[in-house]
Amino acid sequence: MFVYHAKLTGCRTEVLSKHKHNEPLPETVLRVKALESLLVEKGLVDPAALDELIDTYETRIGPRNGAKVVARAWVDPAYRDRLLSDASAAIAEFGFTGRQGEDMVVVENTPQVHNMVVCTLCSCYPWPVLGLPPVWYKSAPYRARVVAEPRAVLAEFGYTLADDVEIRVWDSTAEVRYLVLPMRPAGTQDLDEELLAELVTRDAMIGTGLPRSPRA
């Protein structure tokens, strides 16, 4: 079973080309680089400041913030309940707030339900908890195909679901952004919160992957 959720007026999914979801977007990259060069040349952007911003979201924030949120939910049932009922407030308890993360919704994976996140119209993404979006998340093929054929997309990520597992695809918007709460891996009952956070992957919080195994 497959369910698609979109929380915006007039949302429309465009069925685009069915290339691989991880194909690069050279034209887009070239345009960004050209724009960056122009802004630097005109003195409107400081390259050092830009590098600092990118480094902050790619390495110092990245998905580490989201991993801390997930790990806390795995070990603290009361926090998990707050996270599912008011994600923005629960995430703010860690101090993870700001642009692109003002209105958060957390959806929980279970043995019966698997959640995936997409932004069909552009690339809305929860920066405060996941950092910068991966290239494939912003690509037109992923945005179209995850809605039309989510099981096939999951298979390309190396993840196969049983036929009786319901898939729910959540469409992020300018108003709300989603984070997947993956299931806690088996064999982690003796791990503390810090070690559990190390198992949480970015893809698991988007719904295109799983947490790492403790054996890995």
> Architecture, CATH level 2?
Alpha-Beta Complex
User: Hey, roughly how much beta strand do the residues contain?
Assistant: 5-15%
End-to-end separation: 31 Å
The CATH topology: Nitrile Hydratase, Chain A
CATH class: Alpha Beta
Largest sheet: 3 strands, parallel
Output the structural class: alpha/beta
By DSSP (H or I, 4+ residues per run), the number of helices equals: 11
List segments where confidence is low: pLDDT < 50 over at least 5 consecutive residues: 7-23
* Rg measurement, Å: 18 Å
Give the overall shape: globular
How many structural domains does the protein architecture include?
A: 1
Strand order across the biggest sheet? 1-4-3
SSE pattern: EHHHHHEEHHHHEEHH
For CATH, the homologous superfamily is named as: Nitrile hydratase alpha /Thiocyanate hydrolase gamma
Helicity, as a percent range: 40-55%
Average pLDDT: 84
Total beta-strand segments: 5
